[in-house]
Amino acid sequence: MRYAENRRAVVSSDARILVYVELEIISKTIVAMIDTAAPWCIFEPEVGNLLRPYLSPVQEQVILSTRMGTLRGGLFRVPVKLPADEGRPLDLEATVFLSPDWRGPNFIGYEGLLQRIRFAVDPETNLFYFGQI
Amino acid sequence: MKTGAARRLDPETGNPTPETFIEEIRAILNSGTLRGAREVAERGLALFPDDPELKRLHHELRPFQVRSRPDLVGYYLDPRPNYEWLEKNGDRYRGKWVGLDAGELVIAADTLQEVLDGLGDRSSRSTLVHHLI
Q1: Distance separating alpha carbons of residues A77 and A107, to the nearest angstrom
Q2: In chain A, N or C terminus with fewer CB closer than 10 Å?
Q3: Model-level pTM?
Q4: What is the ipTM of this complex?
């Protein structure tokens, strides 16, 4: 999958790895930032509000410590697709932290998704490689 | 170690109740991992096989499936046109939700729902929904 190293798509002075994630429930694709240091995936509250009616929580009242402070929210299993513009897309479930207080962009975390797949990044070509373990 | 906090409770000693196991699972999730949580639910269910919350947690903590989709090879279009649009126009639409299709703006709005409505039945093959925060 080609990723964006986009400085204008999110509020950030640094280059970030932004990839496509298709949300199966609404059949629409969003952009999320890869963050291997984040435990869970985190989606923006508006995205969460749209998904919540279709999901049952793994656990409500979970605490997540972030650089924006400590947040309370729920953990959910969210069916997603990693689209591939070359090769095979993947279907999987992400563990997503949804909190009405989150003010950042969408994140793809390590425990919540990345550790369930093989992945690699080629910064020279902006390619995000992924596949089944 | 983050998981250390999750082991402060020892459901095997004393007189454990379902809540003892549920609290340990909550502590594991609050430490930012799923590791060990299902095993705690299993140990709890061995003692309290009819407890609905332990049954629910055991189900929600089931292993994750990842499925390759060879049937979708070639389905998704190159995402670069949408990324390029964000790079060029992101600053002008700061604060808005945008719906893009193959590098063209379809709709910009204040809410995600308006953008989804604006995109209508356009397929996820070439569309992207993004919040320019």
Answers
A1: 15
A2: C
A3: 0.89
A4: 0.88
